[in-house]
Design goal:
about 325 residues, alpha+beta, Alpha-Beta Plaits, 2 domains, about 5% strand
Length: about 325
Amino acid sequence: MPESQSSGSSRTTDPASRGTGRGRLAGWAASHARCLLESLGRLHRRWVASLLTVLVIGIALALPAGLYVLVKNLDTLASNWHQSVRISLYLKQDVSADTGQHLADDLAGESGISATQFISASEGLRQFKQASSFGRALDALGSNPLPGVIEVTPKAALPPATVGQLVDQLSQRSEVDHAALDQAWLRRLTAILALVSRASWVIGGLLSAAVVFVVGNTIRLDIENRRQEIEVMKLLGASNAFIRRPFLYSGVWYGLLGAIIAVVVLVVCYLALGGPLSTLTASYEGGLGLKGLDLNEGLFLLAVGIALGWLGCAITVNRQLAAIEPR
């Protein structure tokens, strides 16, 4: 006897379904558990076709999830780079060291500024001599051509546009001759992050629709292969809801197994990037590291896979069962 038909027979003869409320609940749970295991058994018996479907779903889910991981790591990288942004305030030649230090202390207390460091003209000349081979040439000048400099560190939470406004405000101070900040790379990085983030949502939506179509088409073929069995079950009085149940659980299994494959693909990619990542991290003195999916994100991916599998099955099975009537 076919499996779904045997499920129907056990459903009509289960004493728990005719007992008390607790017994009916236990019978309902047992019936669903039986359908859940039977649907997994059908996938196992057609394991080649099921494996191909699961692999397609897994790859489709892994692509947007991988883009999400990429955006998350780029956000971390941008945050680290943003913390290294420095605004150089070149003071006028007539500004004394005491005035420059006092100005640096005042700026450190302003909003939007994390820290300041004053480098006097004499200190700047000493550092330049150490970093270059022009020591004798500088001594021959007789006077120090370098101005005092205040290195201003903006707060990490400031967006690039606000940092640009801060540069304009600082350049208008009477003691400041010129304010410099190479912010073009930061604007480009922010634009790239916005583009990749938007692309991940678009690609995720398209591939989610693809998962729904793949599961729906697989369930449609399964229903066509079992058309005669479904007609017999309807002749025996089985409702569409009862016939639909094992197919819905098949969609759930497809989505769950596909999501597990997606997680495995992401883990393999993470391990494959381990060697180059360690080299890159060493160049940043350990300040940079690749982050994968955490536990909550992994569980969310599994939930998305289950929801997409169930949705693809539900859309197809309702339409297909309505078109099947006993002859």
